[in-house]
Amino acid sequence: MKAQCGPGLSVPGSVVLLALGMFAIGADGFVIAGILPDLATGLQVSLSQAGLLVSAFALTYAISAPILGAVLGGKSLRTILIASMGVFAAANLAAALSEQYAWLLLWRLIAAMSAAAYSPAAVAAAINLLPPEKRAQASSFVLGGLTAALVTAVPLGLMLASVSSWRMTFILIATLAAAAAAALWWVMPANFQSRSLSLGERLSPLRNGNVIRTLASCFVWMAGGIASYTFIVPISQSATGWSADKTSFVLLIYGAAAIAGNLIGGRLGDFLKTPVRALQYFLCVHLASLLLMSLAVFSGPPLGVWLFPVAVAIFAASGWACTPPQASRLVALSPPHAVQVIALNTMATYFGMAAGAALGGLFSASGNLLFIPLAGAAAQCIAIWMLTAREEETFMKATHE
Q1: 196: which of 73, 279, 306, 311 fits an S-S bond (Cβ 3.0–4.6 Å)?
Q2: Whether the predicted pLDDT of 213 surpasses 80
């Protein structure tokens, strides 16, 4: 039965609104990288302390997602979506008005918890809104809001910060979130319920050792990559000598390459028919991009002006190309728990983001930004080692049992 929505709006329009909420969450999660120097200056804290805002957001999201999912199981999706997006908007507005680092940190934690409640509910609502043959497209479209934020919201946030203040970036996110909450209140059906799973059921795939190893490799390569992304503005300034306002160009390159990489990852993963092999290729390229980034920082301008944008494009494309084969790999390892393993992969991703931002902060505190991409390259070496031929054999055996 096709769901009925608010007056004058079709079901696909409702999915667009769900994606708008994800767009706001994506902007909030990624935008700190663009405004990091301005934020640190405005709050009179170090770059490493400002980077901890990324770690705090990611860690809170990773921990609260399964807990909130269990607590809110069986509740109205409409209520979850509107309430979580409303709290998210309020938290970002409060962040924009914060005069002290401690208060900004608190509001970032609240924003992360509300985002952790919204994201799975948005995917579930999209699946409920459309017929079975279009559900995969719907969930992909909603999650695509995160990627779209990389291309538009993050560079826009940096430009806003350069002409006004870093606070305007959070005001923009709060406005987007408030608009999404208001529109969802108007159009979302009230008869959809979230899936009721206990915390134990959500974590049950962790009994599978192959799943644990797969999630561990994701954690490692994500930590290595996010360390450089979080501090991409000061790293880019060191490599190119550009002012902060010109680095929006670098973030634009990153976002466009991320979308291309995601598409390439899906196609190449299907072509190779072995997700592990695809991941090995992508991580080797990711490793090379971090080494090229290190060379750009070591060389500085004028060579760095040419090397760094190329390194960023390869870095973004190879990193985001890992997403489709990783998802395929996990689902194949535990088909009956497809929803749970994808959720656990999101947890591993955010744990990796938290660790990576903290790692980058430690190296930035030393004053030598060159160590950040080098540390990221070392992490990719570890991840590649984890994806050995033996593990590939284990994967193939598990998929044929």
Answers
A1: 73
A2: yes
